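A brief tutorial aside. Many learners find it easier to grasp structure tokens once they have seen a single protein encoded end to end. The record that follows does exactly this for High-affinity zinc uptake system membrane protein ZnuB. Read the sequence first, then the structure, and try to relate runs of similar tokens to stretches of the chain.
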Amino acid sequence: MPEFLLLALAAGLGVALATGPLGCFAVWRRMAYFGDTMAHSALLGITVGLLLDINLNLAVAFGCLAIALLLVALQRSRQLASDTLLGILSHSTLALGLVTISVVGPARINLTGYLFGDILATTYTDLIAIWLVGALVIATLIWLWRPLLAITVHEDLAHVEGVNVTLVRTALMLLMALVIAIAMKVVGVLLITALLIIPAAAARRVAHTPEQMAVIASLIGALAVLAGLSASYFWDWPAGPAIVLGATSVFILSLLKSSKL
């Protein structure tokens, strides 16, 4: 197996490990639109990286975290509904990022790679960053698992039981922002939310407990990475979209299985 394919496989598995359990919370809390907003804000991070001449991956990560914190602050003001805020931030950051990139550096960046993923160009530095962030996300989710489940079931009841709802919700948003920043290398800005939502949605059809759903979602994500990279290697499909189609195929199979039960 070529070295570039091994690096791509290791990177995809690292992302799948993190997106599995985090995607479960995105499904349970109906945060798919939040994922889209974070993904679109990644382009704004690329713009900042180009302007300041800093590492684009770091710029994307800080950009996603900044937008997540801004969203938390705007939600606390309660001046607009959450879906309205998400819509405004999502499309504004996407438009601002695309316009600025076209003005300051269209020749300095492979925009298609960021939009649809460039997993086959993964370097050892990318791989280390993906696995470090993935390990951090998994460790934090394990630590906050019960509070996260509590606020997912009923936020007011969790508050009465002593859970710091605002802190836990903010932590979840920041974790999702981090995962989206690293997943952009695998499936790109336009498909990140699919990698978060589809494996978790498929796992929901067959799991019996939240823990089972998190593990199964990671396994489905890993299977999608294997299928997508295989399709890319043997049939020359674009890797990022092929990975998402792999996850979609598993979701369709889960629908068929549950319909027969």
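Self-check: The CA atoms of residues 21 and 68 lie 19 Å apart. If you spotted this yourself, you are ready for the next section.
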